[in-house]
Amino acid sequence: MFFTDIANMSQLEIITRIFNWTILAAFVVCFVYMARYFFSKFRKWEPAPPALKQHRFAILIAARNEAEVLGFLIDSIHAQNYDQANIDIYVVADNCTDHTAAVARNHGAICYERFNDVKKGKSYVLEYIICKLRESGDFPNYDGFMIFDADNILDSNFISEINNTFSMGYDVVTGYRNSKNLTDNWISYGYGLWFMHEAGFRNRGRMLEGSSCMVAGTGYVVSRKVLEDFGGWNWHLLTEDIEFTAECIYHDIKIGYNESAVFYDEQPVSLSVSFTQRLRWVKGYLQVFHRYGKRLLTKAFCEHSLSAYDMQMSYVPAFFITIYAFFVHIALLLIGLFNSMDMSFTIYSCFMLPSRTYLTLLAFGIYTYICEHEHMPDIGIRHLGYLLMFPIYMFTYFPIAILALFKKVDWKPIRHGNSTNHSQSNIQEAFNKTA
Prior knowledge:
The protein is of the alpha/beta class. It has a single domain, classed as Spore Coat Polysaccharide Biosynthesis Protein SpsA, Chain A (Alpha-Beta Complex). 55% of the residues lie in helices and 12% in strands. It has an 8-stranded mixed beta sheet with strand order 3-2-1-4-7-6-8-5, sandwiched between helices. The N and C termini lie far apart (62 Å). The relative contact order is 0.14. InterPro entries: Nucleotide-diphossugar_trans. Keywords: Glycosyltransferase, Membrane, Transferase, Transmembrane, Transmembrane helix. This is Glycosyltransferase, catalytic subunit of cellulose synthase and poly-beta-1,6-N-acetylglucosamine synthase. The chain crosses the membrane at residues 18-39, 315-339, 345-371, 383-406.
């Protein structure tokens, strides 16, 4: 029966089917190991034991024209259930044209003002402030350095929870990334849902597996020892966080995760702003892959390092496989058109590819919502509308990924302060949800 079916197929249909099975096999090979992460919510989680010591932390904040939001972050740091004598807050007002520096000082932070139009971005700010601390002689006074964006807000237990995991011997620890403005619109919801997946599934799964977790942008601590060993902050690709993660994994520095260390950041609500930000991210992923890909793959297969393999699979293959699938389908349609071949199955396949992808992403989003809904505000039926739009948000990565392959991308600041969730009452409500 099988061979009879093949005999009845057109040549183009056979080629299309072979290609479809090849794409499916590629996804399985690349991502089947993540199944354990996907079901990590059903595995027992052991909270980090209370630390016997409160370590001294320097809080490092890069702020470019962030006067509207910076004060809320600093206030949330002062509201921590942690001895304030063990916390110092350093803000770098980077190329600011507003009163960011004044806000920082008025809220009790130590502020440096930096002006450099050539070396732009958070990575150069981190390099700058660490150099300043070393020059002043204050660097050895700290056990670790916490890195935040100016739009972040911390749950009142964030630092104590990070300290618990830090005290277990991890040189880098990250927390649970939530969103201040998750429900502003479908774009901010898409961001937030993905970040919850990254924290609640992937980093939770990695921690349970004993593998290295990954930092994402903000909300993590780095030990003084790591910065001493590397001679400061030396990671300046467009995604310095991913580059830093790759460096840690390559040098067997295991990154820990504490899901009770919750912090919030603001997501874009404009598609144009989101496009610009994610274009930088994808270009940065490609830069990291180019710089670290060969070394990490060698480590993965020669040293049987799951962390190195996970690092590579988490960021690049999905882009390449999706782009490859798109262009091959276009090529098959053109071959059929110019050779007057029966294209019915290929056209059907072209239609089913995005349809199945949409349904898969929708199921993914719903599953994430079911598992993580306790971290979300109650907006009733509106969740369903945003979940239906989540696959569309993910689809927008497709043109971004193609453009990132060819376009030169520079770092550009993202303006914050347009969120509706910046009042003190909303901050307190966010604290209460995770208390």
